[in-house]
Amino acid sequence: xQKLFLAALFAGLCGGLSAAPKTDVYIGIxxxxxxxxxxxxxxxxxxxxxxxxxAQKVHDTLRADILYGRYFDVSEDGPDFNPKKLDDTLSGWxxxxxxxxxxxxxxxxxxxxxxxLYVYDVMTQAPVFAKAxxxxxxxLRRLAHIAADQIIQTLTGRRGIADTKIAFANNxxxxxxxxxxxxxxxxxxxxTNDRSIALLPRWSKDGRIYYxxxxxxxxxxFAIDLKAGKIAPVIIRGGLSLIGGVSPDGKxxxxxxxxxxxxxxxxxxLETGEKKQITNRQSVDGSPxxxxxxxxxxxxxxxxxxxxxxxxxxxxxxxxxxxKTFNWSDSPQWSPTGEWIVFAGRExxxxxxxxxxxxxxxxxxxxxxxxxxSNEDPTWSxxxxxxxxxxxxxxxxxxxxxxxxxxxxxxxxxxxxxxxFTPHWSF
Length: 427
Fold this sequence. Notes:
Strand content: 35-45%
Distance between the termini: 28 Å
Radius of gyration: 23 Å
Low-confidence stretches: 1-16, 20-33
Strand order of the largest sheet: 2-1-3-4-5
CATH class of the largest domain: Mainly Beta
Structural class: mainly beta
Largest sheet: 5 strands, mixed
Mean pLDDT: 92
CATH topology of the largest domain: Neuraminidase
Number of strands: 29
CATH architecture of the largest domain: 6 Propeller
Oligomer: single chain
Shape: elongated
């Protein structure tokens, strides 16, 4: 456990950072007899010629978001969207066996674009979604992401992830700094300039990011307020403070501290500043994270020998192991639905790290990666359908990947210089 702490804090550093555009869509493997996805028609959006590139950008971003969600297939091979001849348009798409059609009308009055989106049930020709979005040119991709999530919610009753982000540490500047990128690998932003070691970003539902940094020459916990554009200390000069996670209500942090004889787990009340120690064993306890209901934490401990995954009920302190046979386990994260815990594990000193799932009884263990470098730092998408992680599968450098929750369709999120560490997906 201590070895992993030191490895995370003092891993080698290297040099400059930019994200390459990602336009591919990654589809998981299905069996030959699998049911085909319903089709959404997406003809070109209506716009003046002068703003055709902006209209195309919104269309393509929305299309990619819909495809990524994998609830629908998308077709552009059919009649154009004509609001004045809507019956004919929808009848034409009915012949193409589309279930829904997304129509778009985009206009511009400096400095704002107005994006009007309509979704129709093709068979009944009834509108099921109609909304306008307004913003400047810099906000077009974000507006498309928001629209995609709202359309997915309307048609499936499930939340989308197009307007989510992944925060992570990267050492391209020869220091570890915190970055954030859209779920699809675009819109990369560097958030810190600590010029030291910053890692373990952890999102709160209010949009803040808490992280551990050596800005003051000690591993302290700071908070990034994205709305205000400010960074402020939270827990400083208290020995080693490694952030684990933020409570679902946003009122507390769970973290690892070295204040006692052994690294132990504490809860920090963000409203009162009170610290409460919740483990006190002759062992190394760390990597804690909250359950979705905030009643439990999962963490790693070497109390029985090698580092294994444990679960604790916060109200009673009752603790039980979920794994027993791994040579090393680390970075457990609870699924948003509460059914699974994802973690990085090594089965022997001769194996690289892989990503595994374990259920809450500890009886179901599923391997998600194998024979593809070292895979670490897993984190769930907020809908529980995808997992982001770091991997050395491409040339030995740690890069940011996303795969389906069953381990299928792994793909590179963004091709960044330097190495990437400890990603965390926003809520």
